[in-house]
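Give me structure tokens for this 362-residue protein.
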Amino acid sequence: MQSLTRIIGVTNVLVVVTAIVGLWLVPGDRPVAAPPARAQERSMAAPTGPAVGEVAEPPGVVATPEFAKQVKANELGKVPVLMYHRLVGKRRSSIDRTPAQFRQELEKLARKGYVPVSAAEFAAGDIRVPAGKFPVVLTFDDGHPSHFALDAAGKPARDTAVGILLDVAARHPGFRPVATFWVNQTPFGLRSEREQEAAVRWLTGNGFEVANHTWSHPDLRSLGTKKVRKQIARLDRMLGRLGVDKVTTLALPYGSMPRSKKAARQGSWEGTRYDYDGVFLAGAEPSVSPYAKKFDRGAIQRIQSNGKKGECRKWCSQYWLEWLDKHPGERYVSDGDPERVSIPRRLRGNIEAKHRPRVNAY
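Here you go.
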């Protein structure tokens, strides 16, 4: 009797296993790995951001056309790359923002489902955003003291860009505390190399990007090619001394392209070579996806952070974020799977050739 009971038990287990395996098989297709338990359910919930100093794990989703359709994924959509300069209590220039305005914009982005990625991640096409969410790139030019400073306790000062970003991220766990700082020869207003190195190492050690904005912030179009290369390579060399392993992005001062466009992206000076994944302009619209045929990594669009007055009625962040809300089909929506590029079937012809093997069309 005990032997018969054991046989029946084994038989029941085999039936259950066979049924489960059958659910994994797609007729006419090879077997595919089952997604981790509740992976798709997790991807639809608010994502969990990494703690400061930690690297975000890729979302645990294996996207299918059905799932991509469910979350309305469109990884050929537009991405807002926001451009900030100084954060000051009283604005003295049209491109200044107050700490309160910066905080308000971050809160708005977090509530609407945007998730920050760095300029380096975006340019390289390494966009790890949970399913149904939208990437945004937060960028800061000039390495101003209002961007980053450490207080007496060795923590980011409260009203700096980093301090505000960390605070917003703490209250919105899905909002990654990630940003890119493009600096010149005196990053964050720090004069000593020891202080500069401490600042750069803190930022890069905590998931932020520190990259190139040229040595002295000239209009590169006014310079010969040799001087352009010197401006870029000299800053790269300094960042290497300060602890940046590899610089992969450049923001053009004033958004001004040198007469030799190639010199902005590739070149060398006195043995220091540079070869960037992305060169960024100064405005004035969202960027196309890095997977799109039209993506020009040598001239990536950005949007100035500002309201809707004057010339910003149509070209700055408030206008464009509202426009993307009104045109959701034009916005980049993630499928949660970094190994695939999910798009509506009608957009198949717009994908760059090297990304076609990863296309997941629905």
